[in-house]
Amino acid sequence: MKRIALFWIAVCILFSMPLPSVSAEDAVRIRMASTTSTQNSGLLDVLFPAFEKATGGRIKVDLIAVGTGQALEIAERGDADLVFVHAPELEEEFVKNGFGVNRHPVMHNDFVVLGPASDPAGVKDAHTAIDAFQAIAKQKALFISRGDRSGTHLKELAVWDKAGVNPKGEAWYIEAGSGMAAALRVAEEKRAYTLSDRGTYLNYRTRISLGILFQGDPALYNPYGIMAVNPKRFPHVHYKEAMRFIEWILSPEAQSLIASYQINGEQLFYPDARGN
Amino acid sequence: MNLLCHGVQDAVRLILSLDRSLLDILLLSLRVSCTSVLFGALIGISLGSLVGLRHFPGRDVIITLLNTFMGLPPVAVGLMVYLLLSRSGPFGVLGLLYTPAAMIIAQTLLVTPIIAALTHAAVTGVDPLIGDAAKSLGADSLYQGFAVLRESRYAILAGVIAGFGRAIGEVGAVMIVGGNITGSTRTMTTAMVLETGMGNFELALALGILLLMLAFLVNMGLHLLQGRGY
Amino acid sequence: MMTHALQIQDLRKCYGGLEVLSGCSLEFEAGKVHVLLGPNGVGKTTLLRILNLLEEPTEGVIQFNGFKEDGQDGSLIRREITMVFQRPALFKTTVYRNVAYGLKLRKVSREKIRERVGEVLDLVGMSGCAGREARTLSAGEAQRVALARALAVRPRILFLDEPTANLDPYNARKVEEIILEIKSRDQTTILLATHNLFQAQRISDRVVFLYAGRVVETADTRTFFEHPKEELSRQFIRGEWI
Questions:
Q1: Which residues of B, range 141-170, sit inside 8 Å of C by Cβ?
Q2: Cβ-based neighbours of A246, under 8 Å, separated by 6 or more
Q3: In order of start, what are the domains of chain C with their CATH numbers?
Q4: pLDDT of residue C154
Q5: What is the pLDDT of residue A276?
Q6: Can you tell me the ipTM of this complex?
Q7: Residue C6 in contact with residue C31, Cβ under 8 Å?
Q8: What is the pLDDT along chain B (230 residues), one digit of tens a residue?
Q9: pLDDT at C84 over 80
Q10: How far is CA C86 from CA B46, B193, C201, in A?
Q11: What is the pLDDT of residue A12?
Q12: Neighbours of chain A (3+ CB pairs under 8 A)
C-alpha cells in the first residue's frame, strides 16, 4: 500500500514539474486583451507570427480572448498590455478615464442580417438596417439575439433603438445568451432571423441554409480599435513593446495582410489605417 | 449523429497524428489537474480527517461549509482567484495571473472541499472500535488517527478520484485565470471551448473524446489501486 | 502479601444525567483471572473502558500498581495494558500486520516482531494464517487474531469485554483455553466481562458481581457460586433473570 501511494505521489510530482519550455525565453511576452470573435476569425493567427518575425522573435504576443466588456475590464485592472476590441464608445470611455493611450482605428468588418430563404418579413427589400429591423418587428418574425452583452449584441440593440422598437420580452424575440456560433445554430434550427458578424457567417456558410438578406449599410460597420494600456497608471506594463505592436499593425505591411485575409474566398476585414 | 461519427473519426486521427501542440495541451491539462489534486489531497485529507476525528467548537460549521463548497461554481472560484492575482489585486505583484500556477491555485480551491468532505464522510464511517483498538494497543492520538485513516483509505481514494474528475473536466476557472493563451495556458477544456466558438464542432468533440480517454486511463490506475481493497 | 495490579476507589461515570457506574471500589489481584459478572447493561463495558483508559471517569481514583494515573504516567501505563473487544475490530490488512501493530508502535525490531507474531499466532492456533487478509477470516478466527494482537505486546493487564459473546461454542471454548494458558504462562492479570455464568465458573479465580452500576458482591469464584452472600447474586446464579 505504502509503495503504491509513493508511486502515485511520484507520478503527480513528475507531472507538476515545469515542462521544459520550447520557445526561447529571452523573448518579451506582451499580453493583448481582445474579443473571442476576433480570435475566432483566425486573423490573429496570421498577424502574430508575422509580427514576431518582424521583431526577430524578441516580442511574443499572448492573446487573452474574452468578451468585449471583460477585455476592457482586464485592461482597466492592469492585467493586459494592450487592447484590441470593436466597441468604439467603450473604447473612448476607456481612454478618457485614463486607462488607455494611443488609440487608433485598425480595420473594420461588418454585420449582416441573416434569415431563411423564404424571407417572411421581406428583409431583402429593405434599404437600411433600420428598415430591415422594422420589417422583422412588424411581421413578428422570429429573431435570435445573442443576448450576452457582446459587441454584436450591443450593435443589434443600437439598431433596434434607432428603429424605435423595444423587442425585449416579445414572443418573437429570443435571447440565446450564447456565442455567435451557437446563436447561428439556434437561428438555423428555428428558421429565424439574426444579426451576425460576417466572419462567423462565412465560417458557417456551408453548414447552414440561412443566407444574407441584408448588408452594406454603414450603420452595420464594426470598427476595430487598438490602444496601449497607460504606463503612467500601471508602471509594470510592457508599454514600449505594446507600442511596437501598435506601430506595426498600422504599417502598410500589416494593413495589406489584413486586406488579403480571406475565408472561403471572401475578404473579411477592410483596413482603416491606410492614411496613417 | 453524423457529427458524432465525425467527432470519433477526428479523435482517432488526432491521436494518430499527436502533434507537438496537442501534446503540450494534453500535458498541461494533466499537469494542472494532477498538481491541483495533489495539493487538494494534502490539504483536503488533513482537513477532512481533522473534522472527522476531533471534536472542537465550530466543527459543524466547517463540515457544512465543506459540503456547500463541494458545489462551488468554477467560474466563481476563477473570478475570485482572478481578482486576487490581478495586478490591481492583493497578490498582483507576484505576476501569477495567466500562468499555469494561477490555474493550479484555482483548481486546488475547487478540489479541496470535495476531498475534504469525502474524507470526513469516510473517516466518520469507520467503526469507532478501530480507533479504540489502536489506542488499546498503545497508539497516541496521532497514530490512532492514522489507523482510522488507513481503515478508510479506499473511501478517501474515491474522494481523490472525484476531485480529479472535477479538475480535469473543469473549464470555467482555468479559462478566467489562465486566459487560454496559445502555447502556455491552453488546456483540453479551454481548447474545446475555443474550437466550439469557431464552429469546429467535430474537432471540439474529438478533443472531448481524447480528454475522456485520458481521464479513463488515470481513473483506471486509481481504480486498480482501489481494487486491492476488495 | 497480596499484590494488587489495579485498585479503584469510588469510581463514578455519568453520561449526561444518566449514572452508569455509581461508586465502585475494587481491588484486582495480580496474576489472577477476574470476571466482571452481570446481565447486559449493568456497566461492565463502561468499567472496562475506563480501566483501559479509553474513557475518563466522572469521579474516582484508579491506581495501577501504585502509580497514580495522571497525564504523565498515562502513557507508560498505556503500554502495559490492553483490551479485546466484543467484536474483533481488526484492521483491514493482513493477519500479520494486525498482530504486529502494537509491536511496531513500540519500535520493536523487525526480527523480534516476526518472532513474537509467530509465537502468539501459534498460541491462538492461527499459525500459517499470517498472510491472510483479516476480512477473509471467520468470526471465531478473527476473534482469536484479535486476542493474538493484544497478547503480542505482553500486557501486564488484559481486559476482555465479552470476547466470546458472538462466537460458536467451539471457538468460545478455544478462547477460554487461550486465556487460561496465558494466565499460567505469563502471569497476566486478566479482567473479563461476561454475562455467562458457566464461563465465569470455568475460567475465573475471582468474581465481581455487578448490578445497576454497583458492585453487589466480590468473592472467590467457588465461594461466590456455592455460598453467595447477597440475595441478588443468588437470584442471578439460579438463573431467575434469564
A1: 143, 147, 150-151
A2: A82, A102, A104, A226, A227, A228
A3: 1-80+157-242 (3.40.50.300), 92-154 (no CATH)
A4: 92
A5: 46
A6: 0.89
A7: no
A8: 576 787 788 778 877 887 788 888 999 999 999 999 999 999 999 999 999 988 889 899 999 999 999 989 999 999 999 999 999 999 988 889 999 999 999 999 999 999 999 999 999 999 999 999 999 999 988 999 999 999 998 899 989 999 999 999 999 999 999 999 988 899 999 999 888 877 787 888 888 988 998 888 888 887 777 665 44
A9: yes
A10: 31, 59, 20
A11: 62
A12: B
* Nearest chain A Cα distance for residue B230, angstroms: 13
C-alpha cell at A109: 468588418
What's the pLDDT at A141? 94
Q: How far is CA A81 from the centre of its chain?
A: 18
CA distance A160 to A132: 10
Q: What is the average pLDDT value for chain C, to the nearest integer?
A: 89
Residue with cell 501486564: C156
Residue with cell 525490531: C109
Kindly determine whether residue B198 and residue A203, on different chains, have CB atoms separated by under 8 Å: yes
Angle between helices C110-123 and C169-186 (to 10 degrees): 130
Place of cell 523480534: C112
Contact between B34 and A36 using a beta-carbon 8 Å cutoff: no
Cell, residue C134? 483479516
Give the closest of C81, C105, C146 to B143, CB-based: C105
Q: Using CA atoms, how far apart are residues B124 and A129, in angstroms rounded to an integer? A: 66
| CA–CA min distance A166, chain B (Å) | 29
Measured in whole angstroms, the distance separating CA C77 from the mean position of its chain's CA atoms is 15
Q: Do B87 and A4 touch (CB under 8 A)?
A: no
Burial C15-32, CB ≥16 within 10 A → b, else e: eeeebbbbebebbbeeeb
Distance of alpha carbon C114 from its chain centroid, rounded? 25
Look at residue C67 and tell me whether its pLDDT is greater than 60: no
Name B21's bridge partners: none
- Per-residue pLDDT tens digits for A42-51: 899 999 999 9
Cell 437600411 belongs to A128
- Cβ separation A8–B225 shorter than 8 A: yes
Reduced to 3 states, what is the DSSP secondary structure of residue B155?
Answer: helix
Helix (H, G, I), strand (E, B) or coil at A143: strand
B220: how many CB neighbours lie within 10 A of its CB? Answer: 11
The residue written with cell numbers 473612448 in the block is A92
Q: Hey, what domains does chain B have and what are their CATH numbers? A: 2-224 (1.10.3720.10)
pLDDT digits (tens, 9 = 90+) for C124-168: 999 989 999 999 999 999 999 999 999 999 998 999 999 999 899
- Region of B89 please: left (phi>0), alpha (psi -120 to 50) or beta: beta
Judged by a CB distance cut-off of 8 A, whether residue C236 touches chain B is no
Task: Return the percentage of chain A with pLDDT > 90, whole number.
Answer: 64
- Read off the C-alpha cell for B19: 502533434
From CA B38, how far away is CA B45, in angstroms rounded?
Answer: 10
Work out the burial of residue C190: count CB atoms within 10 Å of its CB; fewer than 13 is exposed, 13-18 middle, 19 or more buried: buried
Amino acid identity, residue C113?
Answer: I
Domains of chain A, CATH where assigned: 22-109+223-271 (3.40.190.10), 110-220 (3.40.190.10)
Which grid cell sits at C63?
Answer: 491506581
Of A232, A257, A248, A228, residue with least CA distance to A58: A248
Q: How far is B89 from chain A (nearest CA, A)?
A: 8
B29 contacts on A by Cβ (under 8 Å): none
Mean pLDDT of the region A238-252: 95
CA nearest to C148 within chain B = B137
With cell 483491514, the residue in question is: C92
